[in-house]
């Protein structure tokens, strides 16, 4: 049994905080400056034995709610609670505490509260207000530090100072302590990771164990297996967003009230189990971690991962967080007050960046999230940060806000620092000619005066790249030339979460490069894990290369989220073509694979493929009328596999099964037994080469050379000569696509006047035997070679990393 009588309201402190807030609002230079000061005091802040609470509540002013009808609600589980349980019916003791208000801000303070930590579940809280009928309505905390039941449930009071005090990487930050905030520099390469599909466990804790094991093996000089090598050689790890995402549109909710009176609340609780690629966020809860990603339901797991990466032997790894503040899913309307929003967009809702308090709160959410210990930040969809300029009746890019994001100072272990920043910005996207007109440099141009290391995603890294279509590389040569000149501040590479997803949506009827493989699956796999492309990216082009784990593991990937009810069937119709690219008969037949679809009657891949041939066409011709779609599917002869008769409910059930099955199918663990050790080893060696030659990040100099071999003769072969600033050279030859070269001596392709003597073959792609050390060779599609002269390459002689 719990004793809630220990909770004591500190009205003096709450009123003092409200008075301070009034003073800030009156005396700050402007409302945005006031908002930034006040935002630091919002949420549930643990300070010694007391907890202070702060909320931005303009809706209480809109609705004319009196001070006496607003309370801080504290909920303490009467008999304890297991946050990892799949389901539970829990009785909470409820305490309502008085608040103090200052304009649109509401404050409370109390002692005797139970604080959450790694071992203890804390009290839950929300703000509540009473209507004319005496009913209580909740206002949730968007700045919560722990949300075990997601962004649409009461938050847990969490002891962040204690969590930070326990972290094991304070030495990593201590070494960069200075009089001014330290600015982290770019890494040499990045591994992009989707946590739920990266390991069998699918959690941050499981990913941490993966890197712990790798670190032990590296420190001991043990050999690395292929699945180890997938994670090795990078000096940065970028996680797809780890914020709380949308919930099931049609339920069930993860926190459902089942009864209440003045002193207690009963609720049916479900452990969050949605599947999502990470970008369907509701803004509320952005300061903490999606509970779906937490094995223990404790946000400490993100700190643990940061520490393991920062303490990695030989070459510490940076942690880069991907944050999404350019939009909110429509579900965000149910988590935040209306003042956060500026109207609908293609993703859901625009945020009102011009509201000074919204602007301040968004920046505070970012600051708190990065304080988990990230030393790099990637901003998703920076071209979407816009505001409506009524004077010209047009949307304007909010570059000042992007600068404010970059200027935030973080603090971990008492050390102030500024992270390395990367922006995804393809403006003028979504303008129709964006692929031609975007220079991918808008943010770099705006911010390079204050930060020479600000980065953007480069033109071969943005969404619509299809390196498995013939002439792709020759048609993109104009972009490659831009990379040579401007690429030092670009993320490079063609395999990321977006490009791989777009690749699976391409019609197989296009001019596909069949030299990449014998099947569509082989073609797609090799296109996004291509040795020649990797050699080009890591040994020739400037910038910071990035690989997506699912691509290098040759695992599947797609648009995977199972929350949709209204548009779930439409989403599956758009993803249906990925069946042709990613799933063959054998993969579908494996026991345990696609179990939900099989249970619905799609026993073979052929059954499912036939259904998915009809569905997209009917979605289009009926303008997504589910009742008509179901009627027409029932009329197909011979009958389709699956539920009979087809109803709207059955269509939604099929869509949910597709998403759940594909999410499981995309898990990297299913591909590790099929990895080619020659491929994984060659790619790791290539990353080690880049790590030991960081000068390759910079733009090509006047004495460097880059060209495609002429005449074309049915192939695209790229050659590059890079000169190291302290002496030494790197020469690469990459067969990007097309027919064989015939027998050539690669060194004959060196520029005129460059000696052919004393070159060392440092890296050869898979498909070229280890007995080849130089001289005549016939190169085929996806082959590549790296020669060096005057450089130390002993790090390639088998050193594990």
UniProtKB/TrEMBL annotation:
Pfam families: GHL5. It comes from the Bacteria. GO terms for molecular function: hydrolase activity. The keyword Hydrolase applies. Keywords: Hydrolase. This is Putative glycoside hydrolase-like family 5 (GHL5) protein. It comes from Salipiger aestuarii.
